Amino acid sequence: MKEKILIVDDQFGIRILLNEVFQKEGYQTFQAANGVQALEIVTNHQPDLVLLDMKIPGMDGIEILKRMKVIEPEIRVIIMTAYGELDMIQEAKDLGALTHFAKPFDIDDIRAAVRKHIPQKTN
């Protein structure tokens, strides 16, 4: 079974880029443009890892993270932010985020972090 990654970002281009990268790496990917979609995917598909943007209109990343943890307390989340908001990054880490990336990020760094946090099952 493929490991599942949920990509949550309101920027279409970033979702497409990450989606393409991780599908090529052999993961099953899901995309959400907002918190409502993200929570629906977490509920229905139980992703192994979530790449979560902090700056999303409506429900922000912190709120999405809090609600995901209610649905799935063990969910693994890597946060992404375009801003140097250290308090938000710290709050996300306090809520259980594994690590964070500042945008624009190096795709190889994200790939390495994903590999580290969900090593692929070998058959």
Could you please describe the fold and organization of this structure?
The protein has a 5-stranded parallel β-sheet with strand order 2-1-3-4-5, sandwiched between helices. It is of the alpha/beta class and 123 residues long. The chain has one domain (2-115): Rossmann fold (3-Layer(aba) Sandwich), CATH 3.40.50.2300. The model has no long low-confidence stretch (mean pLDDT 93). Helix 2 (35-45) runs parallel beside helix 3. The relative contact order is 0.18. It has helices at 12-24, 35-45, 61-71, 86-94, 107-117; strands spanning 4-8, 28-32, 49-53, 77-81, 99-102. It comes from Neobacillus bataviensis. Pfam families: Response_reg (PF00072). Keywords: Phosphoprotein. This is Two-component system response regulator (Stage 0 sporulation protein F). One of its GO terms (biological process) is phosphorelay signal transduction system.
Number of DSSP-assigned strands: 5
The amount of beta strand, in percent, is 15-25%
What is the CATH architecture assignment? Answer: 3-Layer(aba) Sandwich
Approximate shape: globular
Helical run tally: 5
CATH topology: the name is Rossmann fold
Helix fraction, binned, reads 40-55%
Radius of gyration: 13 Å
- Write down the overall mean pLDDT: 93
Query: How widely separated are the two ends?
Result: 9 Å
Largest sheet: 5 strands, parallel
Q: Which residues form runs of ≥5 with pLDDT under 50?
A: none
In order across it, which strands form the biggest sheet? 2-1-3-4-5
Order of helices and strands: EHEHEHEHEH
CATH class group = Alpha Beta
